[in-house]
Design brief:
By secondary structure, the chain is of the alpha+beta class. The protein has 3 domains: about 45 residues; about 280 residues, Rossmann fold (3-Layer(aba) Sandwich); about 150 residues, Jelly Rolls, CATH 2.60.120. Helix content is about 30%, strand content about 25%. Strands 15-3-16-17-20 form a 5-stranded parallel beta sheet, with helices on both faces. A 5-stranded antiparallel beta sheet has the order 5-8-13-10-11, with no helix packed on it. Strand 18 and strand 19 form a beta hairpin. The longest helix has about 35 residues.
Length: about 500
């Protein structure tokens, strides 16, 4: 390896600086456009006297209580008929009421009240209901969803992490997952796609590659998926006794063997008529190790695996890294609808917008995105038999401008348009941006270790705060509905 003398290194640095300084000095305020990208430099004034970043006051977050989340007193008997299990969270609604409420019109209130009505007595009636949480990388790895799930299951009943992808590529706190090397992931929001578009409710699926030697010999290829409970997750998601496997496009004989803790538990075959189906398994206790072994001459499409308790809430995390949330209308509807009907989806949370924010050039592009997003809401409602919809809008996001971190300019307008289209579609809207503190709040979140240095994603601590804010808004809406119901009941009795 060639060594350079210190004097040569110093000379090189001085030469580089001498070349760059004139570029910085004479650079226009709006920068240089190179290959369609805008390249900006610090102005000479900011280089000599940098601006002082003002940190926004977010002291109100001190009142957002994220303690007592894990409910260590949880009884592992999943068939409890208690109307309330565990304790509700210590609400911070009064402290930050203006920032946390759900925004609704009359149609949205009616749709959400139907879900609340089911939720109210779900455990005593020994019923189950699903909540789907769709979102971008802000919820990846079960972040936010895991916290909200634990809060809801502790209050209303339920267990298990819910529907999980057949092939999981993201680190998660909520379940352990492994699979054979011949399984391949297919996603609607990435490059590896299914020609059939039968992704189902996860917007992703998996198929296993057929071994060429086995194909020539006309013998089945073997593939497997292995699941274990989480050692890091919240108490409720660690326990499940019901497993449902969703699949479609099975056109050949496909045997399935279930191994429980290393021992063969059951053997069966998938229905090979090509339509969407589920196959269910019931276990006396939570499996320490569950292996599903498939044997077939052609692979079915595995759409997801649901890990559930017997009653209460099942909350499903569907993270779509890099997605703008506009892919739903590209789905094949039959498989998507089948899974939602099977899982009894009553509420769908859609948390998107962040991946589009950096690319907005003008108000027209913002409105176009919002209208496209509205079509996604309408599609989801149609395929879920009019489930309630809650849209969580984009968080604050910052970019470096002239030496300070500032909110992306189109975030407020994007929120306005997303809110408008959500309400027009009969959904409820929760404003994460204002819940954080509004304009330029992200810098304060970063400085308080609530968000990462990318000025986009929450840290674990920040994710809990954001999740609690949403949960408080949700519970506040539920409590208001319950109070109104009491008033209506009293009025009916008096009449």
């Amino acid at each position: 390896m060639k060594e350079y003398r210190p004097i040569n290194v110093l000379f090189f640095l001085l030469l580089t600086c001498s070349l760059l300084l004139p570029i910085v000095y004479f650079a226009p305020d709006d920068g240089y456009e190179i290959f369609g990208k805008n390249l900006k430099f610090l102005t000479w004034e900011n280089l000599i006297t940098p601006k002082n970043q003002q940190k926004k006051n977010i002291d109100f977050l001190d009142d957002v209580d994220v303690s007592d989340i894990n409910d260590e007193s949880f009884n592992a008997r999943l068939d409890s008929s208690k109307a309330e299990l565990g304790l509700p969270s210590k609400s911070s609604v009064l402290a930050v009421a203006s920032q946390t409420h759900l925004e609704q019109n009359d149609e949205a209130k009616v749709n959400l009240s139907t879900f609340f009505s089911t939720l109210r007595n779900i455990t005593s009636r020994k019923e189950k209901i699903s909540i789907f949480h769709y979102g971008d990388s802000q919820i990846e790895g079960d972040r936010m969803t895991a916290f909200i799930r634990q809060r809801l299951q502790s209050q209303f009943g339920g267990a298990g992490p819910g529907l999980i992808p057949s092939i999981n590529v993201y680190s998660t706190i909520s379940f352990g997952h492994n699979y054979s090397g011949n399984f391949k992931r297919k996603i609607i929001f990435g490059k590896e796609k299914l020609s059939s578009k039968k992704y189902g409710a996860m917007l992703s699926a998996a198929i296993f590659e057929i071994d060429s030697f086995a194909f020539k010999q006309k013998i089945p290829t073997e593939a497997w998926i292995e699941l274990t409970p989480s050692t890091k997750g919240y108490s409720r998601c660690k326990a499940y006794t019901n497993v449902n496997l969703f699949y479609t496009d099975c056109i050949d004989t496909c045997a399935i063997e279930v191994f429980l803790n290393g021992e063969l538990y059951s053997s069966d075959s998938l229905v090979n008529d090509g339509s969407p189906h589920k196959i269910s398994f019931k276990f006396p206790t939570t499996p320490k190790k569950l292996r599903l072994v498939f044997k077939s001459k052609s692979s079915p499409t595995i759409n997801g695996i649901s890990l559930e308790g017997d009653v209460g809430i099942q909350m499903n995390n569907v993270a779509m890294r890099g997605s703008s949330g506009t892919q739903f209308t590209s789905l094949e509807g039959e498989t998507f609808s089948f899974m939602h009907r099977s899982l009894k989806t009553g509420l769908v949370i859609m948390q998107f917008g962040g991946n589009s924010i950096p690319f907005f050039k003008d108000s027209i592009s913002v409105r176009s995105y919002a209208r496209r997003f509205k079509r996604q809401i309408e599609f989801v409602k149609k395929c879920t038999d009019n489930a309630a919809i809650i849209v969580i809008g984009p968080s604050d996001m910052s970019q470096l401008q002239d030496g300070i971190y500032e909110t992306y300019p189109f975030i407020p307008y994007c929120i306005k348009q997303m809110k408008k289209e959500t309400l027009d579609a009969g959904g409820s809207y929760w404003d994460l941006y204002n819940a954080m503190g509004g304009k330029d709040s992200m810098f304060a979140w970063v400085e308080n270790n609530l968000a990462g240095k990318d000025y986009v994603h929450f840290t674990t601590k920040g994710s809990k705060k954001a999740s609690q804010l949403f949960y408080d808004a949700f519970i506040d809406a539920y409590n208001n509905w319950a109070e109104n119901l009491k008033v209506e009941t009293v009025e009916e009795i008096n009449e």
